[in-house]
Predict the structure.
Amino acid sequence: MAIFNFLPLPSFLLAAYLLITMLNLGFGLDTQLFNIELLSKKAWSLNVSDVLIIFGILLLYIEIFKATRTSVASIIDHMLSLIVFVAFIILFLVLPQAGTSTFLILTVIAMIDVVAGFTITISSARRDIDMH
């Protein structure tokens, strides 16, 4: 469980996306998981790409919560988050399978993780210093 203190959760998004798009798993990003008819009679469907985005938003919430810690582990987590974000950017620019709107949204989630992580940690550290 201690590995989650250091490992940025968006790295799981990156791995899941690459597994889905690079390996022939029998399904892809556009695979429809289910279809529901709403009360408005409109059909709504959920795709694998939608699930990745939802999962990314949930992981972002956890990452923001993790950023409230002021410890050596949080500094390492922020540095690794920055590396994961750079990996997202590079893959978006050079890998054809990553040139999708879904991957761009996941890249933005990774960016928010980095910016929010540093901002929250600095604010928390400043508050800790002011109290002493």
User: Anything to note?
Assistant: The two ends are 31 Å apart (CA to CA). The chain has five helices and two strands.
